[in-house]
Amino acid sequence: MQAWDVQRQNQGLAAAKNKKVDPRKRQAPSLEEPDRKRLQVSSWQSLQAPSTSDAFVLMGILELPKLDSSGLHPRFVQHIKENLPDIQKLDNRDFNTLPHGIVDLQHEFSDFKRKKAQAWAQSRRVPEPGSSLLHPSGSLEATIAHRLHQPSFTTSLCTGTGMADKSNGCIAMVMGNAYRENETLIYDHLHRRSKKSEGLENYPENVVECHEQFTQKILESSHAKVEVVYGRQVQARVLHSGLKITAIPLWGSFANIVLYFVHKDNFENKQPGHRFRKVLLFATHPQRMFYERKGGEIAIRQDRIPEAAVRIADATITFQADYYQAKRWREYVPPVNQLALYRAARLYESFPFEDLPEVRQEPQGVEAAPKQRHSGRWDEIFSPEPHSNEAIRKMLGEAIRATEALDQGQPTKWQDPAQLPPAVLTWLKGQKQVLFYDRPINDEIDIAITLDKCKTSLSRSER
Asked: Among the four residues 19, 248, 294, 402, which has the most C-beta atoms within 10 Å?
């Protein structure tokens, strides 16, 4: 059987995505109302809901409506039926018999560090100041894996630490649900922190290749039947990497979710008798969740991802069914002011002070030229405490719209904080510890530049 053409399949999914789905039907069959206060779900509780005559089990205990009544295009239905025998083989597979690609993860990481240093030397470039490598955390024998995209400098940990970093907001958010401490595999696609997470765009080609070779070894050696991949940049990289993949769209309460089945032929340790090695699930970048409203469409979909992973791979893993919809992740993520302090401290450590110009002493008796100074009113407007995540989400859209005149090249007269539009001024007051901790604010241009960066970050974090 030929692998489904991913490009054609994605075109069909785009059309299917536009189809209206009743939000009430998005809840998993065993996780519906009435108890929405605190759903701690495990395989021996609501995951053990009895099957109905209309249920269709795709993998594990992932129950869906019957395929012929799924509402999918007939071409998709036929495609799924053709691949069912190989999907069932993957479902029944014992990964303990998988030949080892990586025998010792620590030793393999040390070898990767050596090759990485050689790659940078060959490129005649150096990594960005303050960045550091991240060792994969968890076990290669874990049933579920999480792959992220270059965590930022927001951390309280020293350099050379593991990926399981609860002082980083995005990582802590992922670790708060469908995750077992010291067991679940969590790693980064490029295995390096970055100020702006732009390694795929800015690193030399040979360096990216070196990093991704190590990632391929992890994918090859992991026993995880399901791997959740976060962020569009990494997802696009996976789809265009040359990996042989078969895409299977889901339906029912898991509509708008696609299972990407990775073929065994992508790996050196392939085994006969199997066509598929594992399933990839594409999730929205955790950063986007900071700005999503409770119960929003993206939050609902984000909750369905770990639920599908648990139902497919390991029903004994505990998860919260409304973790993102109800913003349960707040219990696991450090407060925004603490995250800002972590990031500021890390940036301070990475600042190249040796590049600062030498201070020249004026000879005695010679009057120094008067220095140009600002009134200080811009820095005086800041509040002592930063805005909450919820407040930032509400304020940011209005503030961005108020600066669209700058984007269009129209002149502004914001020479003083008092002249700022109310939406921009309100947003700005709580941003000193978050966005402007490393620079003074002298005029409206500084504010417009930062808002533009916010727009860029938001667009990159979207699916």
From this structure: 248
